[in-house]
């Protein structure tokens, strides 16, 4: 019997969800120089786990989770739904278990468990054990026969039966090709021979020929096929979600998922014909503009506090007038403060296009006039079934408040990563009146009414944009923290 996994995630550095900031040093850079620039970006804040640790299994549970059935993982290549607990730990013998697949085969450059690349979570994916075994250490290339995979991997093909054959390659099904390519580009970029106390991991290289796993060169083929797969198969919402989750565990991101145009910027000059008709091309370049000096986020006045003060997410009939309100105890410019929504699994909520649901606030909050953000529509709503989380950050990205309804959420990514939400303890349902919201009111018996801690949650008629009924914001200098 396989026991439940208990794993403790290591602390990662706070992450700025503004990817323009994360990749700012790569602006205007191309070719091999871009590879080096991206290497510096994704080496920073990298958190390493040992390959055999429970944390690696736990991270893959989350990253490759079946959102439609959280009890399963979705295996790469075969697209099989496999129960999470049917993992192959070295003792299990069932062929229909799942195990950890090194997309860039570990024998091609990092066979030792001491190599950083050996346990890099971006390169590890859940895979059907039998399919993983048949894929072996093969290069990636289009073509081959599917006979060996007929029963367990629709679309998988291979050439060659032995590593000594003239060609020894594997073609994954279409729905995995783009992901495979971008993982390979990440590995090529992340492990470029640069130090960083990484036990001298061999410099990895992508080439246009058959490679050997025994020559110690860290090479993998075939680069042109991978480039074509990247062009034809765009980044998916699952890839973006996976990237967020791995970042919450490991501290770094796959730049080719966030910025697919980097692929052409690195290899476009060498393979121009491949990029003539590419779905993941470089976006149009805007005309040059006069540079403007960087702006500094407005400072929060000393002693001021900003918090989530009121929200509405469910009511009788069709949900209407969903919103989140921000309260404060002093005049504060909340421009560029952000609201993030979190799902049951602890990940930031995304819309149907795979984009993170972020609301950017504007304006001034005062103790008698609060700021609110409306929600509504299929891709812009507050979900009914909990637990669900709501996080608030200031303009610098600092987490100010993290609440939830219908249970507690442990954030796995984004600004609240590693934090547990505070359940408001009050909920709405299909019987709630449309004019009611969940809001903060003065605590019974409270001697001060200045900070969020002085209030408690209650369901009552909404008062969007102003202090709630039975809520008084009254601070003396001694009351403020």
Secondary structure: elements and pairs:
Elements: H1 19-22, H2 31-43, H3 54-63, E1 72-74, E2 81-83, E3 98-102, E4 124-128, H4 129-135, E5 139-140, E6 157-159, E7 169-171, H5 174-190, E8 205-207, E9 219-221, H6 223-232, H7 237-250, H8 255-258, H9 262-267, E10 306-312, E11 322-328, E12 332-333, E13 338-342, E14 358-360, E15 364-365, E16 371-375, E17 388-393, E18 399-405, E19 422-423, E20 436-442, E21 455-461
Parallel strand pairs: 5-7, 8-9, 18-19
Antiparallel strand pairs: 1-2, 3-4, 6-7, 10-11, 10-20, 11-16, 12-15, 13-14, 13-17, 17-18, 20-21
Helix pairs in contact: 5-6
Overview of this structure, please?
The chain is an alpha+beta fold and 481 residues long. The protein has two domains: 19-277, no CATH class; 306-461. Helix content is 18%, strand content 19%. The protein has nine helices and 21 strands. A five-stranded antiparallel sheet has the order 16-11-10-20-21, with no helix packed on it. A hairpin with a 5-residue loop joins β17 (388-393) and β18. The longest helix is centred in the middle third of the chain and has 17 residues, at 174-190. It is elongated, with a radius of gyration of 25 Å. Residues 1-6, 282-297 and 477-481 have low confidence and may be disordered.
């Amino acid at each position: 019997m396989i026991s439940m996994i208990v794993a403790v995630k290591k602390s990662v550095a706070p992450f700025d969800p503004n990817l323009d900031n994360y990749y700012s040093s790569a602006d205007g850079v191309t070719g091999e120089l871009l590879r080096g620039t991206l290497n510096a970006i994704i080496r920073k804040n990298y958190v390493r786990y040992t390959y055999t640790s429970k944390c690696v299994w736990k991270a893959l549970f989350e990253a490759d989770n079946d959102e439609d059935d959280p009890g399963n993982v979705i295996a790469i290549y075969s697209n099989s739904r496999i129960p999470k607990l049917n993992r192959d730990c070295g003792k299990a013998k069932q062929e229909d278990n799942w195990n950890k697949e090194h997309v860039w085969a570990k024998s091609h450059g990092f066979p030792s468990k001491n190599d950083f690349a050996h346990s890099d979570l971006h390169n590890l994916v859940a895979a059907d054990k039998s399919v993983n075994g048949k894929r072996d250490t093969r290069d990636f290339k289009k073509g081959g026969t599917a006979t060996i995979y007929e029963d367990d991997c629709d679309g998988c093909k291979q050439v060659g039966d032995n590593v000594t054959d003239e060609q020894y390659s594997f073609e994954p099904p279409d729905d995995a090709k783009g992901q495979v390519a971008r993982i390979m580009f990440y590995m090529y970029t992340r492990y470029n021979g640069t130090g960083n106390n990484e036990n001298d991991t061999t410099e990895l290289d992508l080439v246009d020929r058959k490679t050997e796993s025994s020559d110690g060169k860290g090479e993998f083929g075939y680069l042109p096929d991978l480039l074509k797969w990247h062009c034809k198969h765009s980044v998916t919402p699952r890839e973006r979600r996976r990237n967020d989750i791995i970042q919450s565990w490991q501290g770094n991101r796959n730049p080719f998922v966030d910025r697919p145009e980097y692929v052409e910027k690195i290899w476009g000059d060498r393979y121009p014909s491949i990029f003539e008709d590419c779905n993941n091309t470089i976006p149009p370049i805007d005309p040059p503009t006069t540079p403007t000096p960087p702006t500094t986020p407005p400072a929060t006045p000393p002693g001021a506090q900003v918090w989530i003060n009121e929200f509405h997410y469910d009511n009788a009939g069709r949900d209407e007038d969903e919103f989140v309100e921000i309260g404060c105890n002093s005049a504060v410019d909340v421009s560029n403060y952000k609201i993030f929504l979190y799902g049951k699994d602890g990940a930031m909520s995304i819309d149907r296009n795979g984009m993170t649901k972020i609301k950017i606030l504007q304006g001034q909050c005062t103790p008698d006039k609060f700021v609110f953000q409306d929600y509504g529509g299929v891709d812009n709503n507050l979900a009914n079934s909990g637990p669900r989380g709501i996080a608030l950050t200031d303009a610098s990205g600092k987490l100010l408040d993290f609440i939830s309804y219908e249970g507690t959420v442990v954030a796995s990514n984004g600004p609240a990563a590693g934090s547990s939400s505070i359940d408001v303890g009050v909920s709405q349902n299909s019987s709630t009146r449309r004019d009611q919201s969940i809001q903060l009111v003065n605590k019974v018996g409270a001697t001060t009414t200045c900070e969020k801690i002085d209030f408690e949650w209650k369901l009552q008629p909404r008062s969007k944009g102003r202090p709630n009924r039975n809520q008084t914001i009254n601070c003396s200098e001694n009351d403020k923290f």
